[in-house]
Design goal:
This protein is an all-beta fold. 0% of the residues lie in helices and 50% in strands. It has no helices and 8 strands. A hairpin with a 2-residue loop joins strand 7 and strand 8. It starts with 5 loop residues before the first strand and ends in a 9-residue tail after the last strand.
């Protein structure tokens, strides 16, 4: 049995307004042999903090999610890199946090 490794991580939606919520999904290459924890880090925790507990994937599961909320005080569009790590493999996902309503498309 080949141990599952981290296949990828995604953030949905990829663009969120200040104070908005998003879901981070971590996916494995196969079912987890036992419950596993994928650690999460954010390169800008002031804008998009990630849960210190990471993402838990139950035995037999292939993916897990965590909810995150952008800071309400964002004043300029800020790109954030979230890195998920499990068993020595890291994958990254990117999110854009914008001030105000998410519908105010680029400047």
């Amino acid at each position: 049995l080949v141990p599952a490794v981290l296949a990828g991580v995604s953030i949905s939606p990829g663009t969120l307004a200040a104070g908005g919520k998003a879901t981070i999904t971590a996916t494995l290459t196969g079912p987890a042999a036992s419950g596993v924890t994928v650690t999460l880090t954010s390169n800008n925790t002031a804008v998009l903090p990630v849960p210190s507990a990471g993402i838990t994937i139950a035995a037999g599961g292939k993916s897990g999610t965590a909810s995150v909320q952008a800071a309400a005080s964002v004043t300029a569009a800020t790109a954030v890199t979230v890195t998920a790590t499990y068993n020595g493999v890291s994958k990254t996902a990117y999110a854009m946090v914008t001030p105000g309503a998410a519908s105010s498309a680029g400047k």
